[in-house]
Design a protein that fits this description.
By secondary structure, this protein is α+β, with helices and mostly antiparallel strands. It has one domain. It has 3 helices and 4 strands; from the N terminus they run E-E-H-E-E-H-H. The protein has a 4-stranded mixed β-sheet with strand order 1-2-4-3, covered by helices on one side. A hairpin with a 4-residue loop joins strand 1 and strand 2. Helix 2 crosses helix 3. The longest helix is centred in the C-terminal third of the chain and has 27 residues. The protein is globular and about 40 Å long. The two termini are about 25 Å apart.
Length: about 120
């Protein structure tokens, strides 16, 4: 699954890649991908475009949270808000929003797979 979400308040577009083999899709955005990568976040300094790629066969909710924090930090830096140790509420809201959106997309895809019984071994029912 590949989907894009937009975050109008920050003029940001996030491409979410969620599949067993992310290498081919990620190579469209960077040369720095290795087979051991479980997930990665990619950004461009001159654009408001970001890529989050997570291997579906190694999916963990904690990975989505981890990548969402990277992504929120980068978005805040690009729009000039940076990271403020004592005033990071906007970044925390953004990280939570991103984690929620990415989790919803991931579970939508995993639910489809569960219906096809491809990932049943990963979940206790």
């Amino acid at each position: 699954m590949i989907k894009e979400i937009t975050i109008p308040i920050y003029n940001a577009t996030v491409k979410f890649i969620f599949m067993d083999n992310i290498d081919k899709e990620v190579e469209r955005h960077t040369d720095d991908v290795g087979e051991s990568e479980e997930a990665m976040t990619i950004w461009y300094d001159d654009k408001h475009y970001y890529v989050v790629a997570i291997r579906k066969d190694k999916f963990k909710q904690t990975t989505i949270v981890h990548e969402s924090v990277h992504l929120a930090h980068r978005i805040m830096s690009v729009v000039g808000l940076g990271h403020a140790l004592l005033d990071d509420e906007a970044e925390a809201y953004l990280a939570g929003y991103l984690a929620g959106e990415l989790t919803s997309l991931a579970y939508e895809e995993l639910d489809n797979d569960l219906l096809e019984h491809r990932y049943m071994k990963n979940f206790c029912l």
